[in-house]
Predict the 3D structure of the following.
Amino acid sequence: MAAATSSPSSLVFTSLRKPKTPSFTWRISTPLRHPKKATFIVMSMDAKPTVLVAEKLGQAGLELLKDFANVDCSYNLTPEELCTKISLCDALIVRSGTKVNREVFESSGGRLKVVGRAGVGIDNVDLSAATEHGCLVVNAPTANTVAAAEHGIALITSMSRNIAQADASIKAGKWERNKYVGVSLVGKTLAVMGFGKVGTEVARRAKGLGMHVIAHDPYAPADRARAIGVDLVSFDEAISTADFISLHMPLTPSTNKVLNDESFAKMKKGVRIVNVARGGVIDEDALVRALDAGRVAQAALDVFTVEPPSKDSKLVQHENVTVTPHLGASTMEAQEGVAIEIAEAVVGALKGELSATAVNAPMVPAEVLSELAPYVVLAEKLGRLAVQLVGGGSGVKTVKVTYASARGPDDLDTRLLRAMITKGLIEPVSSAFVNLVNADFTAKQRGIRITEERVLLDGSPENPIEYVQVQIANVESRFPSAISETGDIKVEGKVKDGLPHLTKVGSFDVDVSMEGNLILCKQVDQPGMIGKVGTILAEGNVNVSFMSVGRIAPRKQAVMAIGVDEKPSKETLKKIGNIPAIEEFVFLKL
Ligand SMILES: NC(=O)C1=CN([C@@H]2O[C@H](COP(=O)(O)OP(=O)(O)OC[C@H]3O[C@@H](n4cnc5c(N)ncnc54)[C@H](O)[C@@H]3O)[C@@H](O)[C@H]2O)C=CC1
Ligand SMILES: O=C(O)C(=O)COP(=O)(O)O
C-alpha cells in the first residue's frame, strides 16, 4: 500500500469509515513520530474511487472528477437501476431530477461515502437516511444563484407582458394586440419570500426595475435587507400588500404548501405569483382555484410538486400561467460553475477533507481543524481505551467527557472531538462505523448518552486543550484500578509534542504514548517489577515502546503502563499475569 502524507484535515471523513468493500480502503494512522509535526498518513488506495454522475454535469466538473476517480455518467437511470449501481460507487452526483431516498443508501451496502447535489435544493435527498448511513451530503450552494435570480426576473417581466402567450398566439397565425395588454412593474410592490442568496439578488434587480421591494424571511438579518433598501415584514403583511410575490425559500416541512387557500384569500385581488423555488411550497390545486376566481391574476412557475407535471395538469394548461421546465439554474455559466463547485466538494470529501458545503455534518473551518488534529487522535484513542476497560456484560450508557482548556466555550469547537470519542467508544465493540456525520446518531441509537463538560483553566489559551478526560459511569471494569474515586472508569490524556499521551488511569497518574498496544498492570510497588515484565516481553519478542509507573506512594499500589509495538502472544500475556505481585492486568489495542 502506498503511504502518502496529507494535511491534517484529511482525517476527518474517510478515516472514520470501516470499508465494507475491499476496493477502496482509507485509513489514517496516528501521527508520524515527528515531534511538533501534526502530519497524518493516508494509507490509500487499492483502486480509484468510483463516482456515479446520475444527471448531466458541466464538462469542467467532469474533468476534475476524472483526475481523481473513475467516473460513470449514467443519466436517466430508473430507481431500480440506481439502487443496483450504487453498491459499486463511492460517490453519487445528482441534480434535482434524482430521488436519493433511503433505499439508495440501504442498497449501497455501506460503500457510498458522499452524495453531491449539483445545485442548492437538497429536498430530493433523504438527509436522515444519509446521516444514519454515515454518508456525507454536499451541495453547490453559490454557483447558480445569479442564474436563478435572473430566471425569476425573466418570469416576472415576461408574465407581466404576456410574452409566452403572445409568442404562442403569433405563431398560431394570430395578431392579438388588444388581448395581450400587460401591467407595468414600476412602482409595484414585490414581496420576496425567502431573503437568502437568490431572494436577495432578485430584490436587487427588482429595485433596478423601479419596484418597491419588501421581503419575508424569519431567519434573515434585518440589516442585510436594510442595506439594499428592503424592509423585512411578516408573512401576512408580505402577502397582503404585494402586487407580485416571488418565492425563494427552501422546501421544508414548514414551507410545504405555505401558499394555500387561506393565504391566497389574504392576497390582493389580481396578485401575480412567481415560483423559482420548489413546487411544493404552493398548494397547486389551491392556486388553480385562486386563478379561476381571479384572486391571482397570473402565475409564472419554473418548479412543480411533481416534475415533470402531468400533461393535462390544469395548472400548467391554465391560460394565465406561464411555465418553464425547472430552468432556473440552467445557464451555461451556472452549469459550469455548479459542476466545478460540486466536483471539488466531492473530491475533497473523498480525500477526507471537511467540506465547506457539508449539509449533514458540522462545518469545521480548516484552521480549527488543523489545530485540533492531534486532539482528534487523542480523543479517539481515549474512547477506544475506555471502552476496552469495561467489564463484560456492563452496557455503556453514560459517558462524560471533560475538556480542560484556557479557552472560552466559544473558542473551542468540540463537536469533532466528541465524534471521535464516540467512534472510539463504539467501533471496538461493534461492527458499526462511525464518522463525523453519524456519530451523534449512532450514539443515540445505541442508547449512549454523552455529556460534555468544560474545566476552564487559567493561563495561556495558546494550547486549545490541556487534557481530555473520558469517564464511563455505572459499569464494571476488567481492570478495577481504572475505576476512579467517583466510581466511574476514567482515562485522561494530553497531547505532548503533537502526540497523544495517556496521563491518567482511574486515580493513577501514568505517562505513556498512545501508539501500538498497551498493557496495564496493577501491582504492589516493589523493586524488580519493570525488569520482570520487560524480560517476559523480550522473551516473547515484543518490543516495548514506552513504560511508565504511577503509584499512590512508594511500596504501595502502583499501575504500570507499557506501550508495546506488537501484540504479545497468549503465553506471554499469561506469564505476565502469573507474576505473583501483579494483582490486575489487561491488554488493550489502541
Ligand atoms: N429553479 C431552480 O432551478 C433553482 C431553484 N433554487 C431554489 O431556490 C431556493 C432558494 O435558494 P437559495 O437562495 O440559494 O437558498 P438560501 O438558503 O440562500 O435561501 C433560502 C432562504 O429562505 C429562508 N427561509 C427558510 N424558511 C423560510 C420560511 N418559512 N419563510 C421565508 N423564508 C424562509 C432562509 O432563511 C434563507 O434565507 C431553494 O429552494 C433552491 O432549491 C435555487 C437555484 C435554482
Ligand atoms: O439548485 C437548485 O436548487 C435547483 O433547483 C437547480 O436544479 P437543477 O440542478 O437544475 O436540477
Observations:
- The longest helix spans residues 366-388.
- The chain has four domains: 50-139+336-351, 145-323, 364-506, 513-589.
- The chain has a mean pLDDT of 88.
